[in-house]
Every structure is written in C-alpha cells, then in structure tokens.
Amino acid sequence: MKRRIGRGAWLAMIAACLLAIAGRSFESRLRGSARADNLLEKAYSDPRTLELRLRGAAWSLLRERASGRIRAEARSADLLRAEAEVARLYQANPVGTLELRDRGRANLLEWSFDEALGDFHLALAHEPESPEILNDLATAYYERGEAQGDWESLVDAYELESRAVQARSGDTLLLFNRAVIAKRLGMYGQSMEDWRRVSELEKEKGWAEEARSNFQQLAALQKTRLEKNGGPLLSAREFADRVQPEDPTTWKEVEPRVEEYVSEATRSWLPAAFPRKGDADESARRALKALAIVLERGHGDRWLRDLLWQPGSDSLADAVASLSTAAQADWTQQNYSLGRAAAQDARRSFAKMGNRAGELRAAFEELYASEFADMGTVCSRQASQLQSALREVSYPWLSAQTALERYNCELETGNFGASEFLRRARQISQAASYAGISLRALNFLAADRFARGDLAGGWHASSDGIREFWAGSQDLTYGYNLYTTVEFGVEVRNSWFSDVAYGEQALSLVEGNQKPFARAEEHLALAKASLLAKSPAVSLEHLRAAESLIADVPPSSETSNFRMDIATQSAYLQALTGSATAQIFPAPAEISQVENVYTLGSYYTTRGKTLAFEGKVEEAKSAYRSAVALAEHARRSLSSDADRLAWRHSWTEPYLLWIDLELKTGNTQKALAIWELCRNSDPAVLPLANGSRGTKLDASVMENSLASALAAEEARDAQVRPNLRDDALLLFTRLPDRIVAWAITEQGIETSVIPADASDVVMQGRLFRELCARPSSSMEQVSLQGRSLYSQLIAPVESQLRKAKNVLIENDDSLAGIPFQALIAPAGKYFSDEHAIRYVSGARDVERESASGAVVTRETKMLLVANSGSSMDGVQPLDDVVAEARSVSYLFPRAEVLVERQATLSAVMKKMPQAESVYFVGHAVSDGERTALLLSSESGSSQPSLLTSQSLGNSKLGSVRLAVLAACSTQGGTERSSDEADSLVRALLGRGVRHVVASGWDVDSQVTSRMMDAFYKNLLRGATVSEALAGAEAETRRATQHPYYWASFDAFGNN
Q1: Considering Cα of 112, then 67, then 497, then 620, what sign does the dihedral take?
Q2: Is the peptide bond before 47 cis (omega within 30 degrees of 0)?
Q3: What is the pLDDT at residue 691?
Q4: Given the DSSP bridges, would you call strands 917-922 and 962-966 parallel, antiparallel or unpaired?
Q5: What domain range is 649 assigned to?
Q6: I need a labelling partner for 647 at 20 to 30 A (CA). Which of 345, 350, 756, 973 fits?
Q7: What is the CATH number of the domain that holds 1002?
Q8: CA dist 587 to 337, 556, 558, 568, 619, Å?
C-alpha cells in the first residue's frame, strides 16, 4: 500500500528540489561569470586603453587612450570572445547582478560608457553599497567625463570611488582609480596621497611602479610651482641694480611677480624713498623709477610714474606713510578699521598736494577696507565713484582691482546683477598682462557661474584658472581662492567627498601664511564637509585646528561677522559630534549688532540645524523662520531672472530645512506653502526693513511680514485644488537627505518619500535623459532605465495620479530635464500614454487649461517664422523648414509668415506682440552661456541675428497664448533646464506667453514636421496644449519607437 505524504512534507520536498536546482543554477552562473571575467581581464591588458584598473587584470603599459567607442573591427580577439560569453550569460538572466556587471565591464572596454552606466546603475539598485559596483560605475562616469569633457561626470566618478574606498580603505585598486580621477579634477594632494598608499601596499610590481611614477610627477609639479613663488622678492637695492629701465631683457627676472612688486612698492619702497624723518633711501627711489618704467612700457600702467612725477612729489612723506599703513593693515594684518582710517588720511594728503595718482590709490585702499568690513552700501558707493575717476587715466592695476571690489560690494548689498564688473576686470587685466589679477577675475567669474547654477560654466572657468595657476607664478593665495570656489561648485550638488578633496588642496597652499582667519574658515568648511562625507574623526581634527587659529587672533569690530560665522559653524559641529550644545552660540546681543544679511542668514540656518539635531523642533523652526525672512529681504534687490536664480542657489537651504521639519511633524500644508514661497519667481512680498537696502535689519518687521506671506500662500494653495478637477499637480523637492514627492489633487495633498538615495536618482535621471536624447542609444537601455526611474519617482504616488487626465509637474532643480513622458510603467505603458504632461514652475498660479478656453482656433492670428540657414556660413541648411511653416499656415487663414530673409530679429520683435500664437521653425544655437534662435541678418549686416532671452527685453507678450519653438534644444539655458536664467522658455513665460512648447534636445526635422502637423490638428479639435502634444507623441511613436524622435518636446505654462 502506498504511503501517503503529508502536504507539509510534500511542500518541503518541492522546496528542497527548487533550492538544489537554484544552487546548481547559481554555481553555473558563477562558473560562467568566472569565464567571462577571465576573458575580460585579458582583453583589458592587450591593448590597455583605460588608465583606471579593472579588477583581476594584470598590469600592462597604457599604450593609447581611447576617447570614444572602439569599433568592432578594432576590438581584440579576447574582447570579442568576452563579449560573446557575456551576451550568452545576459540572455539567460538579464536582471542578475553578476550578468549586469559583466556586460557593463565589457561595455567599459569598448568605451560604450552610456551602456555601461545603464548596466551598473541597475546593478547598484540590487546592491546599493557594493564597493565593486561603485567602482565599476565610477569607471563608467570617468570614461564619459574624459570622452565628453564633462566635469560633472568626473565629479560623480570621484564621489562613487570615494564611497567604495570608504567601505574598503586598503584596496589598492580602488585607491589607484581614485588617484587617477583626482588628478584629472585637479585634486593633486589627494591624488598624491592615494598613489603613495598604492606604492606602499600594492604587491604587483607593475601597478606599484606606475603609482610611484605618477606620485613623483605630481610631486615635481608641486615643487616647481612652490619654488616659483616661494623665494623672497628682490630688495629695493637688488631691484635697482638688476633692472635697467632702458634694457627690457633685464625685466625678465621680475616680470613673473610684477604685481607683487607693485604691492611691495606701496608698502615699503615708497615710505623708504620719501621718509618723514632722516635721509631718503636712494636705492628705493631708483627701484621705484625702474618699476614705474616696467609698468608703463610693459603693462600700459602709468600709475607709479604719475605718482612719482606729478607736482608735489617731494612732499609725499606724510601721504605715502599713511598709504603704506593702510596697505599693510588691509592686505597683511587684516585690521580693516586701521586700514580705512589710514587710507582716508592718505587720500586727503594726496588730494591736498594735487597728486591724483596717490589719491586714487588711497581711495582703493579705503574701498578695500570697507568691503572687508562688510560695509556693503558704503563700499558700493565708493567703488562706483572710483570707477568713474579711473576712466580718465591709464591705471589698469587699479581699474581691474576696483572692478572686482565693486562686484564684491554689490553682492554684500544683495545685488546679484553685477557680473559685468568681473568680465571688465578680466579684460583689463589680460590686456595689461597682469596675470594675478586676471586669475582673480577668472576665479570670481567661476564663483558667479556656480552661484547661478551654471555648473559646467563654473567648472570651465575654474579649470582654466587651475591650469593657469599651476603653470604660472602668481601668489599662492590665488590658487587657494580657485580651489575654494570649486568647493562651492561641488557643495551645490552635494558632492561632499569632492568638497573635502578640494578643500584640502586649498588649505595646502596657505597653511604657512599669515592669514589665520582664512585658514580657520577653510578648516571649518572642511569640518562640515568631512562630517557630511561621514568622516567624523577628520571633521573633529579640522574643528580643533579652526578653534586654535581663532584663539590666536585678537577680536576687532571689523572681524566680528567673520568670527561669528566661525563660532556658529563651530557650535553646530561640536553639537553634532557630542562635544558641546547650542549654548555656545553667539549671544543675542552680538546678533543684534550684525548688519550683513549673509552672516545673519548663516547664523539662523546653522542654529536651526543644531536645535533640530538636539530634538528642539519648535525652536529650530523659529530659527529657520528667521533665516527665511532674511532670504526674502535679500530677494527684494533682485532685478532679473539671472539674479533670482542666483538668489535661489544661495538661499534655498533654510527653506528646505524648515520644510523637512514641518513634514516630519505632519504639517503638510505649511510645508507646501514654504516651498511655494521659495519657488516664487515674482519679486519678494516682504517690505524692506526700515525702508531701504543696507540699513540695519529689523527682524520683527520681516518675520511679521513673512507670517502674512505664508498665510497668503496657504490660502492660494487651497484655491488651486478646486481648479484641478481631473488634473493632478506633482511636485518634487530634494531635501537634505531625501526626495519628497507631493501629489496634489482636488481631494487633497499627499506626500511620499522617494526611497532611493537622492544622489543616485539624480545621476540616473541625467543618464536617462542623455539616452533619450541620442538616437543611437540602445532601446534596451532606454527601457531599463525608464522602468527603473518610474519605480522610483512615480510608483510611490501612482495611486494619487490614477484618475488624473493631466499631470502638471513642478520639478526640483536637481531633477530638471528628466523626460517624464518616456518613463515606463510595469505594464509596459509610457507615462504619457496615461497622462498628458505639462511642466509648471509653481502651484500658486496653476489653473486648468480647459478653463481658459481653446488655445488656438482657425481664426487665431498666427505668426510663423522659418529660417533654413541656407544663406549662413557654417550652418547646415534645413531644406524643409519653409515648406513646414507654410503647411502649418494653411490651417490658419489669418497667419502671417516670415521666411528666410524676412525672418530678421527686428521683424519678429515687431510682429510678435500683436500675435496670438507664434511658431518658430529652424536652427537653434548655443554659445555655452545662452540658447538662441537663429534668424536672418539685418539689412546692412552679414551676421545672422539671434533671438535670445536677452533680446526679448521688456517686450509685452500677453496676447500670445502659445509659442512653439520647433528647433534643436530650445528649452535649455546653460544647464539644459527651462528654469535657467538664459532659457527662452522662462523668458517667454515671464513676458506673458501662456503656453510654450519647446524641445529638450536636437530634433529630426522631418519627424518634427509631421509631429507638429499632428499637434496643431489636435489643438484645432479642441485639445489642450498638453493633450495635443501627448496625442502627437503617440502618433509619432507608432512610426519611430526611440524617444529621441517623439519625447523631445515638452509643454510649459503657468496660467
């Protein structure tokens, strides 16, 4: 008789069998992966085209550097065999971590970095902290950064590699790879340290010797650079003896440091040559005359010549003594009260004797002291007056320095629209061959670009500056300033490992100088960055160094703001590391005396963070409230889109921290109001404290006004919901440690935390956009990344969006540019199959499209502008644009068409304010700073005219209900975001246009023509802009599956 088997035993047997099968399957996968790895390791070494190491590969000489995809016929036999094995394994298990890694590594070896990035991102989702996958992903980003000159990819590579090193600190492969990336980014100190460790720990001779050689090369570079600047300047006697005014060949010894001699002459030679008591130093007089000739003939600078040869030069003693005191106090002692007083004495003395050159130099020292004493309004006025006076003379050193200080003064008053002074300083200093001031101006330009969110532009200026610095002989302080500027650029993107490396590099250049405040500030910045990079021990070391430096410096009224910044940051870091509490923050009496809005904003933001860490939630909210009130005060000075975006990058932190606390305590409505206030692009609603900018700040007035503004925002948000009906508003906010999605419908507001790591989501979003923007990219990769991002960004709020016909998306800056329409749901449908999408820049003014009536009808007054570029040199003509414009015009009997030579900027600007809809088809161009529509040249000119955000000026375009920009990459500003200051989309919306449709990347003109035809026909059937675009996308997709062809265009509009 058969024995019955119980159900539990039966299930156990099945489970055991499945486990055995799975075990054998896994073993088989491991064996297959081992075979693939072996082939990949061989392929890596013969020939070696990648400077970074591949796990398991033997050392070989780096024979050639690939910079793009290696063609199939150029691949080695080992690589081809490896790819065949990898393909077989991947086909059997396309979602396995081992298979994804192997395929990604094969892609690395053929420099198919985009495909490798896709594979490794998916693998990292399975094992988020795997050092091996982090290293693989870092290598892929490094490849892309090298091939495309993309700084952000290189920073991503460094961040990922540092995470891997932090998890496995003694791994020589990880250290070697980080050293390569660090060198490429100009982090020479970090690169040397990593290569030193590799040379000591690495057991394989080839890798150890390569590391040692790289270390020695950088050590030699650093030694040479320090030697150029490390020696003492010539004394006045040595200068007079060696520099012959009539023999330019004798000037070569002093030219590399001529700007330092200008400063030395002011501080020491002038008072020695014209003493108050005793005999004049004839060597000093000879040196001054020789230097004056070097400056005039070599640099076009007559300042010293005029100072020495103007009437009254024999009576210079009192004036030059005061000027020397001022220069030493300002530049060496950092005693700005003494510097300002001495400069005023010198200015009066020079003016009395009619020595205009001396008077202007003294005025500059007074300006410099005022700027560093945080007297923003005073120094702005002084700088303006000094610039006017300098226009009448040829004093390029003074003119360039004054332009730079004017920029600083304007920033102190909250005026962000001052970058023209930086370009002027750079032009003047370059023309005069003043390398130090030119480098300083370049550094300021980089900082300005970073502050405006133009990371690529900021890095471009910074990298030029770093190259100039290491090849030059300027004072080491210039290098320090360059590296601290790049620190700001990486802080903007929360790249804390890079922040630490750049900060350490900066500090190494000034560690022995006599400016303890600057060194203390850098140590504190490093303490903060180290903590965020999860290195508390390093953070404490820098904190103690900063405190030691502060203790050695006597307090003064001018340095109080600086000292308060240090004390505030110190208190926060000590609280986080458990060594102190918020009790050590500056006292209220000290705070009441501060007038600098940035110092106060930093104080309240940092105090709020400390209180939040200690669990004092309501007190922390109060501190953030004060910081936001100051931010709104600063917003009052803004006069342009560029100013407002720069303000956003500088002041967003307290808003986000306050939002975070409100969400954690369940105050969703309040959190949303704070977010909308932050994103509000209109002029600030708060009145200026006491009536004008730069006066003493009245916190109570500002905070009362802030309370009213927030109440108004909450009321507006409540009014938005009834207008949504069958629509939903989807907002994304990147908080300090997470991304939050807000789904707002007629029924209410729901928030969801995106579970994935915020930085990983940002990187993956950027990759997905780039895959979509290139028709040659793999549809498999597009699909994989689209599904992955859908699961991370949409799935958490999917239930709230299910009934929405239209989804209005307001993106956080870090997620800008993601083509949401191409995200793929688990069922395989694109997001735009279920929802029409429109991008908005704020919830406050959203209304339903259908509520405002049809956007266009057959009676709409349409302006069509078409320019093929056929008459322009260097432009590939677009043969079908005129036909496309005329095709669209047939749909609108009242259409007016400007084609080819008729389509000039003046003609367009004349017609556009009267139009109800505008359609541009043709070329778009970018010069790295702005995007422009290419128009025909004006009469009498051979150059094409450009329609840019700037050329729109103050045009009133309220009658234009729809503008369509059917050209390449017409959304973007510097960062390909419609919200950048130089974005045409933002400019058109800001001047009254209701809806804008624009492309996010280069488009195929023939496909676009068919898509636009479908779009306008949908509009004429009564569809809204977003619905018409979704329908046109779906129709286009039936013929061209790749998102490059159908997902480029987006609808924008705040009604």
Answers
A1: negative
A2: yes
A3: 36
A4: parallel
A5: 620-720
A6: 756
A7: 3.40.50.1460
A8: 23, 17, 18, 11, 16
Nearest to 797 by CA among 730, 846, 724: 730
Q: Does residue 922 sit in the same domain as residue 1018? A: yes
Residue 547 has pLDDT above 70, yes or no: yes
H/E element, 496: helix 496-510
**Going by DSSP bridges, is the β-strand pair 738-745/727-735 parallel, antiparallel, or unpaired?**
antiparallel
pTM: 0.78
Alpha-carbon torsion (809, 814, 815, 816), positive or negative: positive
**Structure tokens, 852:** 């405002």
Distance CA 960, CA 915 (A): 6
Query: Is 826 a residue whose pLDDT tops 80?
Result: yes
Domain stop point among 687, 720, 753 = 720
What pLDDT was estimated at residue 316?
86
What's the gap between Cα 102 and its chain centre?
Answer: 33
Lowest average pLDDT, out of 70-79, 364-373, 862-871, 936-945, goes to 70-79
Residue 493 exposure: Cα atoms within 13 Å on the Cβ side:
28
Q: Is 555 left (phi over 0), alpha (psi -120 to 50) or beta?
A: beta
Answer yes or no: is 983 within a domain: yes
Q: Are 391 and 349 in contact (CB under 8 A)?
A: no
Mean pLDDT of 58-84: 75
Sign of CA dihedral 574, 580, 582, 584: negative
Q: What is the pLDDT of residue 801?
A: 92
Q: Tens digit of pLDDT for each residue in 956-1001?
A: 888 999 999 987 655 554 444 445 544 788 889 888 899 999 988 8
The CATH number covering residue 763 comes to 3.30.420
C-alpha span between 731 and 729 (Å, rounded): 6
**637 Cβ contact partners less than 8 Å away, ≥ 6 residues apart:** 413, 414, 415, 416, 643, 693
> What is the SS3 assignment for 745?
strand
Total residue count of the chain as it appears in this document: 1055
At residue 576, the pLDDT reads 78
Q: Has residue 203 been placed in a domain? A: no
Residue 803 located in a structural domain: yes
Separation CA 767–CA 616 (nearest Å) = 40
| Cα(36)–Cα(823) distance, integer angstroms | 32
Element (H, E) at 562: helix 560-576
303 vs 291: CA distance, rounded Å = 11
Residue the block writes with tokens 């350490």: 504
pLDDT of res. 844: 58
Report the alpha-carbon distance of residue 239 to residue 283 in Å, rounded. 9
**Residue of 863 and 23 predicted with greater confidence:** 863
| Same domain membership, residue 417 and residue 380 | yes
Q: Are residues 675 and 755 in the same domain?
A: no
Residue linked to tokens 């749901």: 825
Residue 584 lies in a domain: no
Q: For residue 212, give the 3-state DSSP assignment.
A: helix
Mapped onto helix, strand or coil, the DSSP state of residue 23 is helix
In angstroms, the CA 331 to CA 401 distance is: 13
Domain shared by 117 and 99, yes or no:
yes
pLDDT digits (tens, 9 = 90+) for 889-934: 889 999 888 988 888 889 999 999 999 999 998 877 764 455 778 8
- Looking at per-residue pLDDT, the higher value among 582 and 772 belongs to 772
pLDDT exceeds cutoff 60 at 174: yes
Q: How many domains does the chain have?
A: 5
Same domain, 827 and 948: no
Question: Of 664, 697, 720, which marks where a domain is finished?
Answer: 720
What is the torsional sign of CA 782, 783, 788, 791? positive
CA distances from 858 to 861, 862, 917, 995, 1021 (A): 9, 9, 11, 18, 10
Q: Looking at the structure, do residues 248 and 128 belong to the same domain, yes or no?
A: no
CA distances from 305 to 311, 313, 403, 459, 563 (A): 12, 11, 22, 39, 40
CB distance 790 to 825 below 8 Å: yes
Whether residues 1040 and 921 share a domain: the answer is yes
Q: Are residues 260 and 389 in the same domain?
A: yes
